[in-house]
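[step 3/7] inverse_fold.run input=structure_tokens len=59
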């Protein structure tokens, strides 16, 4: 009945993933390779969480 009020965790994680990739891109353009690597690693962790949620939703 109240499922319309539940937040979609995939949407939130996707937004976070895209934001991290954008931050990483800006760090790379500035020449800050260390920050680029850290942000890319964080984005990969978020991507793994997205994949786990998508698999759980398919089952």
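[step 3/7] decode complete -> sequence:
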């Amino acid at each position: 009945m109240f499922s319309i009020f539940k937040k979609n965790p995939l949407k939130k994680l996707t937004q976070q993933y895209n934001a991290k990739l954008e931050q990483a891109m800006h760090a790379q353009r500035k020449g800050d390779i260390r920050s680029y690597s850290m942000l890319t690693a964080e984005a990969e962790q978020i991507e793994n969480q997205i994949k786990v949620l998508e698999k759980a939703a398919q089952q």
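[step 4/7] annotate
The mean pLDDT is 92.
The two ends are 22 Å apart (CA to CA).
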